[in-house]
Amino acid sequence: MSQDRIEKQIEVKAPIARVWRALTDYQEFGEWFRVKVDGPFVSGQISTGHMTYPGFEHVRWNVVIKEMEPERLFSYTWHPGAIDPAIDYSVETPTLVEFLLEETETGTLLRLIESGFENIPSGRRLEAFRMDEGGWTSQLENIENYVTKSP
User: Fold this and answer.
1) What domain range includes position 83?
2) Residue 18's domain is classified under what CATH number?
3) pLDDT (tens digit, 9 = 90+) per residue, 24-82?
4) Which residue intervals of the chain are DSSP H helices?
């Protein structure tokens, strides 16, 4: 198994437009991702906020929105596992998170790819990978539940 890249997918029984909105509307994203985002997502701009997941409320949300290709690709860069407020993660190269959408007969195939773990300092690389590997499994379930319960 590669320690540089996480790939996951889930089939969501909802139209592609609905899944796209849950990914790219900053308030809806915040609901299922458990983050209070300060404002709308805009390509090429920084998105800030803070996590709302119990026990992680001290963690700042800082990502750079890369691409928003309607109903096909939403991507951003971030610093995975950046949970210690005493560490300046901004000096590290961020990973790239990509959400890719494809229409299926029964809804939407949502694929998640996070790449670039090889650029994280070796002292925290495996832990960041481990946290995101499990985290993305939960987050894909969260978006599926969110979309199917709030059409």
Assistant:
1) 5-149
2) 3.30.530.20
3) 999 999 999 999 999 999 999 999 999 999 999 999 999 999 999 999 999 999 999 99
4) 16-24, 26-33, 122-149
